[in-house]
Every structure is written in structure tokens, then in C-alpha cells.
Design goal:
alpha+beta, Arc Repressor Mutant, subunit A, Polyamine Oxidase, Chain A, domain 2, elongated, 31% helix, 5-stranded antiparallel sheet, 6-stranded mixed sheet, FAD/NAD(P)-binding domain
């Protein structure tokens, strides 16, 4: 195809997979990087093996997904027809069905990854992206050799240049990579607030009496679920996944797994009124589990710098939010490839900003005065045009000499051409 581009997508969770698929369907070359052993991110299924006992599986990350939009509903409907997804009645608490992967939650990203690979997407797992260069190259290391959040421009593999790098990791991880480019998106990542979550997985020799799911209030436990109640779950024994509340997880973030297991199992026993002792027990700490404060915008895209961001941190704490954000980023990227026709005001902004260069700025009144003798009535239109151009990454809007997000445009501003980086 003409104008075929190469894009790096960092993070193979739902947002990254959705973005990669959408871009690949448009005919572009995509390489998807993830530090995990397989795609999925927080949509994960873990298996526990014990000598002399049947294997048990736990869905210790996202528990289910709801679908309200057409695109995500269509995906889940398709996966249901392929026996890879089904509603979980025990988890439904409203008119929205609680969708799960079959036989485990990881079936959802695995199906999306298979679709991506069928479209030619190259998926590199067990890779930690440690640096992004102004030229569009990435440096990535074996995940086993990298420290969490490590930023380094040494060792590993240096990729060829990509036309753009699209990050879909949790905001704290993306922040460090945007900072490599000294890009304002690093500041936007700080606006996203994510809560941690401790998960405990327990196997019982005999069934524990009580409801299959429970959402305790004002308790260290925020969620507990009997894995056996999931559709087509393969577990032969009674298995439970417990999620601590955000507040409790934050307060006990650095506790040992053994301490967490003991504390949360005591709460489980009290809630379920049982004296049963698990025969197998494990814990997992999710540092970035639940969006508490989102950006409130579908994605971030700067076509000049060739940088973008998508995740549930953009829209909110739902699996569908991550999917929608990934699709929104892909669409923004594709839209920026189309020829752009400017309005007269936009054309004048771009002309003057380009002539002055990145080291000088201009006032909105400079634009208005160049367009009409009676220029003051044009100022609101100049401001609106500047906001649109800034949202596309073509100019910067400055307040007190510093770039601001287009949505925060107010008061006295100046305009400056945007350069890559």
C-alpha cells in the first residue's frame, strides 16, 4: 500500500492489542512489545500445580468485562460464537452482562493476539522497552534482566526507526519513557491515578459454603469469587480468588506475600463463616490495578513527535475503556495521515508560526490583524483554531512561556510551532 508506516506499540494488554489490530487492518507494519511472558497485561490467568493434585487455575487480574459500545460488544459476541467468551451470571450485578474468557480471562487477549498475528503484527514478549530516541528507535532488554521501570540507553537491542511509538502501559511506566523524549505527555501521565491490588488465590479440598461472588463494603477485602462458578471452568477442586480493597492494598503494598495471605484469609473466613483451611495458597501484587482518576480524554497523540498514549487510564476503570482507548489512538494516527486542509485562520496560524520558528512565539492578535482590519471579532475564532491545531500536535499553546494542554486554554496565551521531541 502507498504511505505504509511502521509503528511500535509498547504494551500488549487490551489497549495495545486493539490499537495494533486497528492499524494492521489499515495495512501498516506493527511491532508489539510486552514485558510479560504472553499478551494480556492485567487480564491474566494463573495456574497452580501441586504434587498429587489436579491443576487449578485462577483469574487473578481483571475479573470480568462489561460491554456498552458497539465495537466491544461485537468483539465479545464473536468470541462467544467461537466458544472463547461467555457471560458469568454469578458476577452480574446490573443489566450489563459480566463477560469472561473461556476457560479463563486470558482467552480474551489470546484471541486478540491471534487476530493481530494473522494480520502480520509482530509480537515480542519478555521484552522490556528501556529507552525511546528522538529518531523513533527503541532500546529493549530481556525482561528477566531488567529492573522494574528501568530506563537505560545501554545494552539490549536497538531497533530500526519507527514512524511513531505508541505507549499503552500503565501511566507510571509510560511517564518514564515519555521523559526520555522530554515530552509533555510525561506531565499528563501524572494526572492519572492508579490503585494497587493484592490478590490471594486459595484452593480448598472441600467446597466452601456460601455465595459464589461477594463484594464486601468497608472491609480489607473488596472482592471474592469462586473460580468454579465461571462458565466452563476446568477446576476440579473449590478455588477462590480474593482481591483486597484499594485502600488496604495501598497500606500494605510492601508486606510479604505470607503476611497478605494470612490477613486476607482471616477476612475470608470471617465473611464466609468457615473454618476450612486451604490446601494451596498464593498471592500476587498488582502495583497498577485500578484507575481511580482518568485523563478524561480517549487518547493522546502528537503526530509531529510521533508519540501516542492509550490505556484505561485515559477513560476509566473498565476493560472496555482500555479497548476504546486503543482504538481511538489508532484512529487518531490514521486520521493524521490524511491530507489536511486548513481554514483561513488555521492557515494563517501555521504560516506565521512556521516563519517565526520554534524559538519565537506569536500572539493570537497577530493572526487576527493579518486577516482583517476589524480584527477583534476574529479573536475567538483564532483561539478555537489554535486549540484544534494544538490538539493535532501542530503547534504549542503557551501560558507564561510554558506549553499547556489544549483543553486548559484560557487567559493570556501565545502560540509557537511544534517541533519533534
Amino acid at each position: 500500500m502507498q504511505n505504509r508506516k511502521t509503528y511500535a506499540v509498547v504494551g500488549a494488554g487490551i489497549a495495545g492489542l486493539a490499537c495494533a489490530i486497528h492499524l494492521a487492518e489499515a495495512g501498516h507494519d506493527i511491532t508489539l512489545f510486552d514485558k510479560g511472558r504472553r499478551p494480556g497485561g492485567r487480564i491474566a490467568t494463573r495456574r497452580a500445580r501441586q504434587e498429587g493434585a489436579p491443576e487449578a487455575s485462577f483469574n487473578h487480574g481483571a475479573q470480568f468485562a462489561t460491554a456498552r459500545g458497539q465495537a466491544f460488544t461485537a468483539l465479545l459476541t464473536q468470541l462467544r460464537a467461537e466458544h472463547q467468551a461467555a457471560p458469568w451470571k454469578a458476577a452480574q450485578k446490573s443489566t450489563d452482562a459480566a463477560w469472561v474468557g473461556v476457560p479463563g480471562m486470558s482467552a480474551l487477549p489470546q484471541a486478540m493476539a491471534a487476530r493481530a498475528e494473522a494480520l502480520g503484527v509482530k509480537i515480542l514478549c519478555d521484552r522490556h522497552v528501556a529507552f525511546i530516541h528522538d529518531t523513533g528507535t527503541l532500546r529493549h532488554l530481556p525482561a528477566a534482566d531488567a529492573k522494574p521501570g528501568q530506563i537505560t540507553d545501554a545494552g539490549g537491542v536497538l531497533t530500526p526507526a519507527f514512524d511513531a511509538v505508541l505507549l499503552t502501559t500503565p501511566a507510571p511506566q509510560a511517564l518514564s519513557l515519555f521523559a526520555c523524549r522530554d515530552h509533555d505527555f510525561a506531565n499528563r501521565m501524572a494526572d492519572i491515578m492508579l490503585a494497587p491490588c493484592w490478590a490471594v488465590m486459595a484452593v480448598f479440598a472441600e467446597p466452601v459454603e456460601g455465595p459464589d461472588t461477594l463484594r464486601p463494603q468497608h472491609n480489607p477485602l473488596g472482592w471474592l469469587a469462586r473460580e468454579n462458578s465461571r462458565p466452563n471452568n476446568p477446576n476440579a477442586r473449590d478455588t477462590w480468588t480474593l482481591h483486597a480493597s484499594a485502600d488496604w492494598s495501598r497500606a500494605h503494598l510492601d508486606d510479604s506475600a505470607e503476611q497478605v495471605q494470612a490477613a486476607l484469609m482471616a477476612e475470608f473466613s470471617a465473611l464466609m463463616q468457615t473454618t476450612a483451611t486451604p490446601v494451596n495458597l498464593a498471592a500476587h501484587r498488582w502495583r497498577y490495578a485500578l484507575v481511580e482518576r482518568a485523563l478524561g480524554t480517549p487518547c493522546l497523540w502528537d503526530p509531529i513527535a510521533g508519540l501516542g498514549y492509550a490505556s484505561d487510564g485515559c477513560l476509566g476503570p473498565r476493560v472496555e475503556s482500555a479497548f476504546d482507548s486503543g482504538v481511538a489512538l489508532a484512529r487518531a494516527v490514521l486520521e493524521s495521515l490524511r491530507p489536511r486542509s486548513y481554514s483561513p485562520i488555521e492557515a494563517e496560524i501555521m504560516r506565521q508560526a512556521t516563519e517565526r520558528g520554534p524559538d519565537k512565539s506569536l500572539c493570537p492578535s497577530d493572526i487576527a490583524q493579518a486577516l482583517a482590519p476589524d480584527w477583534r471579532p476574529l479573536l475567538p475564532g483564532v483561539r478555537d483554531a489554535a486549540i484544534a491545531l494544538a490538539a493535532e500536535g501542530r503547534i504549542d499553546i503557551l501560558r507564561k512561556g510554558k506549553p499547556i494542554p489544549p483543553a486548559e486554554t484560557r487567559g493570556v496565551i501565545r502560540l509557537r510551532i511544534r517541533t519533534a521531541g
